[in-house]
Amino acid sequence: MYRLAGMDASFLYMETPTHHMHVVGALILDPSGMKEPFSIDHLRHLIETRIHLMPMLRRRLVMVPLGIDHPVWIEDPDFVLDQHITRVAAPKPGSRKELAEIVGQVASVPLDRNRPLWHMTVVEGLDDGGVALVSKLHHACIDGITGADMMAHLLDLEREAPDPEPPSEEWEPDDVPSELSVAANAVVSRAQDPFRVVKAVGRTGRSLFEMGRGVLGIGTDRKLNVALPFTGPRTLLNAPITANRTVAFGQASLDDLKAIKNAFGTTVNDVVLAASTMALRRYLLNHDDLPDKPLIAAVPVSVHGQGGSDGINQVSNMFVRLPITVDDPVEQLRYIHEETKDAKAVHNAMGVDMIQDMAQMTPPGLYNLALRLYAQPLVAGALPPVQNVVISNVPGPPIPLYIAGAEVKGVYPFGPLIEGSGINITVLSNMGNVDFGVIACRDTVPEAWQIADGFADAVIELRKAADAHAG
Q: Whole-prediction pTM value?
């Protein structure tokens, strides 16, 4: 058995019937160079020969009675690969709009906790002769970096790549433990580290103290002007979410983003936030709902290798104001650049383990109860949103890749929605492109394509401004 770390477990505790904590990805594949058409059999063979390199695919959860400790993973004795892979045909004409409808349907259904927490769907019948592979994995077993590691095992650098070496030992499933043995194991785990929560409280206190010093300007050159949760305006993006999801996606040029950041002395992440700001501003203007103060964006930050954090998910958060009231794109970018400098300073002062420690300290049932209460219309209508939008920027492959002989032409990521925030924008660099995915609550933000197309238009507009600035 493998016990989940605090943050990994928190993604389970946060889940409700409307608040799903899985991540979804859509890979667009070009099978034209293959000797035969890509099929579900190719995917089945690929996973069968590589599953020993991706142990999470055969592990299922066992919950601990009364929440004495975090759940455990076991090697699932009932694992059947065909329960985790399916195929569907896209409705005609098979454009990206029909594909997006399928991805939205996949994202709307929670994963079955009685099985390993993943599923893959092969989508055939796309209008350009291509196929898509839609993956869904629970956040408890994947984050941006571990997801990239998993992709590295599924993808190849050449079309005719050989199968990897088989495992040196046969896989052995576990027996499903009884509730009594799981509870006893949890008691032993707590007894072996009785001061786990005490230590987490101490580290959290120190982190809050250091963060407070930065905000108040104690021992620093100036006060840090930081964005805080619960300080954003309430907009139509921030109604309580339902289980229904809708997605949209697109591509921009990575060279364009680099040219923009070089011209104005910012970062690529600043450009991503600025393009998101422009797209959201235009969407809210079109719906006569532009607020009179900046939106608050939660920006996940990977902390792999930066501290003592354990578990699969090693991620922290920055909060950044998005100048939604500013019309000029270059002014928006410069505003965001200054915002992210202060946000990074506060994040560094806070320390990489604070969110992990908070997950360790919070009783499991409290996560779920708090989210259910927050989703109630009376509560949600009275409180400001924790954040208005989640925006992620994840590094991706810089070279051509193949899966079972089909070339990967696009990798579109879709992160989970957070209760009270009806939209998530995730960006992933892929060869010379920036592939981006927008996922939203269909009942709150039904026109996700307006935001996705707006993001692509914003990058083009900023590139024109960068060229004019350069001379």
A: 0.88
